[in-house]
């Protein structure tokens, strides 16, 4: 199989994931989009590893090994990510990213940060 | 012990007493009174011993150099001649009397320990000035007196008058001290030494290059310290301090220091005829002006303050005609009777509950309340008015005698114009002195009206001191024949012409005032006036502090009262209004110095706040605006951040590609 097919597929997957990360409002869908991007990278790793091993005499298949790493890390990441989203949803009653703007700077300056922090502390309690 | 050791102990003992008093004042209150009185009394005994051993003979000189100090050496030097020995005895007597009197006067004062220690320090500084044989050492004592007067005048610092007066006293005397210091340096440069004996030697050999300049510079410091025109304005205001302090400052220390300084260095001043004429004019203006002002004062202590200025004018007048014997004679006599006047005034203020003569003239039987103060004050006022045979007569006639001597051209190196100025001013002042002395006595002791408030018996310590001081006021004139042996040898006995003239003029002044009083006293009953602070349990200091604080609210001014029955008002006529405020000199100084300084301060404040601060604030404003702009990017939306990150990555990638392809 020519290298172009997996590469194009990977690029499409990555772009879909990127679009999801940038445009989706639901935190879970954003996480899913992140997974798409990761898997696009995994696909690239495997495809290029195969392509490289055709020309080289002996290879360690480091691309495929790295893919396994990525999958393991992605599993851990998605576990923590979903746990955070769950906790946020339980506290706020929403997982809409547009509404989670506690770190926004206001025009009032640093003096008004104290009441905002107090509000946040109350919300997380 | 040698005379030198004794003489060193004289200033040292009060100094040690002051140090111990300041250290132990809080922890051991029982020691405060002995520590205040004993060093002064011991110093007096030692000063008497030194005077007896010195005996008016050859001056005792001793010097030791602590460390080399460059071109002109500064030595710890003593120079005790007849003048120093006698003035030290006077300082010791007055200081001891003041310390003993203060134990009664400030009986319940919470700040008595620091007060007594400062009085001791003051005494020690004056004794240092008196005995010092080195001009720098003299300056040390001179400046310590300045700072002590600041603290002591401001003793009642709860009252705004005292705070203002202490600052004024300090600033005005310092104003004179700056030219004084420059004058001392110039003198030492010309003479090559700070030692008084060497300076006088240099003057005698004529090696002084700028005698007029030096004399005038030194004169500025003397005018400040000795309250001579035009730097006398601090002295009447210094009456806001406790009465014993006034007695100390006016009789023996501080103001006496200036006169004594000129007496010590008289050859320096005599080397310049111009300086003598300036001194004579200064003395004449001071004498006549203070006499008029004293006649218009309502505060009993302010009358005495102006009288001190006038009597100091006599002393500087005597110095202006080149006779320090007469000047120091008057200094000694004046020290005794002026201390007595002030201490008696303190008793009267306590008994009357007011310092206002207008209020006292509306009190019946004040003299029966305080018989000791009445009799001793009468003696002191007679001495002040120079009525024979009291001490003031002899000393003042000595001054007038030498002035007449100089006026007729019999004195060497003294311009006869100086003699005439001093003689005429002295005679005019004799009239005024008798007038205000009479007025004070009549208003204080011959009042009609309500009973004086009862403040109980005066403490024995206060009354006893009055009688002690009454002795020299009465009998000091007997020493007229002996004093020339201690001084320069000039005859000090009164001459017939000036005695007749002076006494006659004084009698006229007294009688005219009496007549005016008879004329006006009937009006006193028609115009009720007076605010009396009654504290039967309080000590005298408390009564006095309240009297000072209530004078301006009650009578509209610290100096005068709107009393139509005042004989001074009749005598002075339209001049009274100006005399009461010291001929507007304070207003002139306010216009000349105070307001420009305040305007300058306002300008500096404006420049600092509006100009300098604008740059500082501008430097902070720019980063603040930038920060506000950058803060807008922080929306809190993570997706915006990631979008910006992506855009940045794309830009960087394109740039990297372009660079890599070499486009």
UniProtKB/TrEMBL annotation, chain A:
<keyword id="KW-1278">Translocase</keyword>
<keyword id="KW-0813">Transport</keyword>
<keyword id="KW-0520">NAD</keyword>
<dbReference type="GO" id="GO:0048038">
    <property type="term" value="F:quinone binding"/>
</dbReference>
<keyword id="KW-0874">Quinone</keyword>
<dbReference type="GO" id="GO:0005886">
    <property type="term" value="C:plasma membrane"/>
</dbReference>
<keyword id="KW-0560">Oxidoreductase</keyword>
<dbReference type="InterPro" id="IPR001133">
    <property type="entry name" value="NADH_UbQ_OxRdtase_chain4L/K"/>
</dbReference>
<keyword id="KW-0472">Membrane</keyword>
<dbReference type="Pfam" id="PF00420">
    <property type="entry name" value="Oxidored_q2"/>
</dbReference>
<keyword id="KW-1133">Transmembrane helix</keyword>
<comment type="similarity">
    <text>Belongs to the complex I subunit 4L family.</text>
</comment>
<comment type="function">
    <text>NDH-1 shuttles electrons from NADH, via FMN and iron-sulfur (Fe-S) centers, to quinones in the respiratory chain. The immediate electron acceptor for the enzyme in this species is believed to be a menaquinone. Couples the redox reaction to proton translocation (for every two electrons transferred, four hydrogen ions are translocated across the cytoplasmic membrane), and thus conserves the redox energy in a proton gradient.</text>
</comment>
<keyword id="KW-1003">Cell membrane</keyword>
<comment type="subunit">
    <text>NDH-1 is composed of 14 different subunits. Subunits NuoA, H, J, K, L, M, N constitute the membrane sector of the complex.</text>
</comment>
<dbReference type="GO" id="GO:0042773">
    <property type="term" value="P:ATP synthesis coupled electron transport"/>
</dbReference>
<dbReference type="GO" id="GO:0050136">
    <property type="term" value="F:NADH dehydrogenase (quinone) (non-electrogenic) activity"/>
</dbReference>
<dbReference type="GO" id="GO:0030964">
    <property type="term" value="C:NADH dehydrogenase complex"/>
</dbReference>
<dbReference type="InterPro" id="IPR039428">
    <property type="entry name" value="NUOK/Mnh_C1-like"/>
</dbReference>
<feature type="region of interest" description="Disordered">
    <location>
        <begin position="99"/>
        <end position="125"/>
    </location>
</feature>
<keyword id="KW-0812">Transmembrane</keyword>
<protein>
    <recommendedName>
        <fullName>NADH-quinone oxidoreductase subunit K</fullName>
        <ecNumber>7.1.1.-</ecNumber>
    </recommendedName>
</protein>
From TrEMBL, chain B:
<feature type="transmembrane region" description="Helical">
    <location>
        <begin position="112"/>
        <end position="131"/>
    </location>
</feature>
<dbReference type="InterPro" id="IPR001750">
    <property type="entry name" value="ND/Mrp_TM"/>
</dbReference>
<dbReference type="GO" id="GO:0012505">
    <property type="term" value="C:endomembrane system"/>
</dbReference>
<dbReference type="GO" id="GO:0016020">
    <property type="term" value="C:membrane"/>
</dbReference>
<keyword id="KW-0812">Transmembrane</keyword>
<dbReference type="InterPro" id="IPR001516">
    <property type="entry name" value="Proton_antipo_N"/>
</dbReference>
<feature type="transmembrane region" description="Helical">
    <location>
        <begin position="200"/>
        <end position="224"/>
    </location>
</feature>
<keyword id="KW-1133">Transmembrane helix</keyword>
<dbReference type="Pfam" id="PF00361">
    <property type="entry name" value="Proton_antipo_M"/>
</dbReference>
<dbReference type="GO" id="GO:0015990">
    <property type="term" value="P:electron transport coupled proton transport"/>
</dbReference>
<feature type="transmembrane region" description="Helical">
    <location>
        <begin position="76"/>
        <end position="100"/>
    </location>
</feature>
<dbReference type="InterPro" id="IPR003945">
    <property type="entry name" value="NU5C-like"/>
</dbReference>
<feature type="transmembrane region" description="Helical">
    <location>
        <begin position="303"/>
        <end position="321"/>
    </location>
</feature>
<dbReference type="Pfam" id="PF00662">
    <property type="entry name" value="Proton_antipo_N"/>
</dbReference>
<feature type="transmembrane region" description="Helical">
    <location>
        <begin position="496"/>
        <end position="517"/>
    </location>
</feature>
<feature type="transmembrane region" description="Helical">
    <location>
        <begin position="36"/>
        <end position="56"/>
    </location>
</feature>
<feature type="transmembrane region" description="Helical">
    <location>
        <begin position="6"/>
        <end position="24"/>
    </location>
</feature>
<keyword id="KW-0472">Membrane</keyword>
<dbReference type="GO" id="GO:0042773">
    <property type="term" value="P:ATP synthesis coupled electron transport"/>
</dbReference>
<feature type="transmembrane region" description="Helical">
    <location>
        <begin position="137"/>
        <end position="157"/>
    </location>
</feature>
<feature type="transmembrane region" description="Helical">
    <location>
        <begin position="464"/>
        <end position="484"/>
    </location>
</feature>
<dbReference type="GO" id="GO:0008137">
    <property type="term" value="F:NADH dehydrogenase (ubiquinone) activity"/>
</dbReference>
